Amino acid sequence: MYKTIKIVYRIQDKDRRGPYRDEYIDRWDNKNHNRDLILYPTPQTDQGICTEMTEDIYCAFSSMKQLRGWFSNKQLKELRELGLKIYVLKAEIIDKSSKQILIKFLK
């Protein structure tokens, strides 16, 4: 476990809900994410992640480059239209892989 505070990048709505939440998952083109769990692993299938997900742990990215490797311009546009945007946040990093990081929001 890392438990360091860093600047992170996360796509979410104003209530911290991300694009894979039930209210959004079927409303944008994420077909490639569902088919390719090597390029787009869930935290549970990401071999670099050892932390079990809980309600207070969220997925994010360590850089804009990492985020842009996950979402295409078309997908980012679709997500913006749904009210989700890229937030640059200070957060506690709980775990990380080459694809994503797990964070807790600072209180």
Describe the structure.
There is one protein chain. This protein is an alpha+beta fold and 107 residues long. It has one domain (4-105). It is 20% helix and 27% strand. The protein contains three helices and four strands; from the N terminus they run E-H-E-H-H-E-E. It has helices at residues 31-35, 64-70, 73-81, and strands at 4-12, 58-60, 85-96, 101-105. Strands 1-3-4-2 form a four-stranded antiparallel sheet, covered by helices on one side. The longest helix is centred in the last third of the chain and has 9 residues, at 73-81. The protein is globular and about 35 Å long. The mean pLDDT is 92.
Fraction of residues in helix:
10-25%
Strand content: 25-35%
Average pLDDT figure: 92
Determine the structural class based on helices, strands and strand pairing: alpha+beta
What's the shape?
A: globular
How many strands, which pairing sense, and closed or not: the largest β-sheet? Answer: 4 strands, antiparallel
Radius of gyration from the CA trace? 13 Å
Following the backbone from N to C, one meets helices and strands in this order, namely EHEHHEE
How many DSSP H or I helices? Answer: 3
Catalogue the unreliable spans.
Answer: none
Q: What is the CA-CA span between the terminal residues?
A: 19 Å
Strand order of the largest sheet: 1-3-4-2
Number of domains: 1
The counted number of beta strands is 4
TL;DR of this structure?
By secondary structure, the chain is of the alpha+beta class. The chain has helices at residues 31-35, 64-70, 73-81, and strands at residues 4-12, 58-60, 85-96, 101-105. The two termini are 19 Å apart.
